[in-house]
Design a protein that fits this description.
A seven-stranded parallel β-sheet has the order 4-3-2-1-5-6-7, sandwiched between helices. It has helices at about 20-35, 50-60, 75, 95-105, 115-130, 145-155, 175-180; strands at about 10-15, 40-45, 65-70, 85-90, 105-110, 135-140, 170. Strand 6 (about 135-140), helix 6 and strand 7 (about 170) form a beta-alpha-beta unit. It has a single domain, classed as Rossmann fold. With about 200 residues, it is α/β, with parallel strands linked by helices.
């Protein structure tokens, strides 16, 4: 019997709130189902609320695997998900983001709030600084990312970033296109067990 091949681990950044547009919840569920169907492991913020909870629940519903990473002080605010394959509680936001980075082969941004924006800009910045070369995808479902993309473009237009910064991330129009790209992501993660 041949060993089970390693699965891709995809970090998804998205809202701890659902937002006003029900279509975004539908897309979050589609992403979770699609990841599970393709044998991808979800790495995410560990909450059971909002779009982040919807993605996690969808992966689990489709018999996929989910690792949640949440700082202790947020276990109540974001209501830690107690039904995950694995839940890691960290001592800080910085530890959370570092562990999610270490565990992931690629990063996906779905609709979200300030925390999602923070995670997205930081992971793009880390790539700019040469700290990693893992793919970063911004999934612009329903055009939600227009303002974020405009802000990123403004840094280039105003001379604060080089035009090459556009190569640090890829904008994807919808979940089916995103899933197709994720299947081609190289397996690069090597998890240090002492981090868990």
């Amino acid at each position: 019997m041949s060993p089970t091949p390693p699965s891709r681990a995809i970090a998804v950044f998205c809202g701890s709130r659902a937002g006003h547009d029900p279509a975004l919840h539908t897309q979050a569920v589609a992403l979770g189902h699609g990841m599970a169907a393709r044998g991808m492991r979800l790495i995410y913020g560990g909450g059971r609320v909002g779009l982040m909870g919807a993605v996690a629940d969808a992966v689990l519903e489709a018999s996929g695997e989910v690792t949640g990473v949440i700082p202790e002080f947020l276990t109540r605010l974001e209501v830690a998900h107690d039904g995950l394959t694995e839940l890691v509680v960290t001592d800080s936001m910085h530890s959370r983001k570092r562990l999610m980075f270490d565990l992931a082969d690629a990063f996906v941004t779905m609709p979200g709030g300030l925390g999602t924006l923070d995670e997205t800009v930081e992971i793009i910045t880390w790539r700019q600084l040469g700290l990693h070369d893992k793919p970063v995808f911004i999934c612009d479902v329903g055009g939600w990312a227009a303002a974020l993309l405009a802000a990123l473009e403004a840094t280039i237009d105003d001379g604060f970033a080089a035009a090459s910064a556009r190569r640090l991330y890829r904008v994807v129009a919808d979940v089916p296109s995103l899933l197709q790209l994720l299947t081609a992501v190289p397996l690069r993660h090597a998890v240090d067990a002492t981090l868990l």
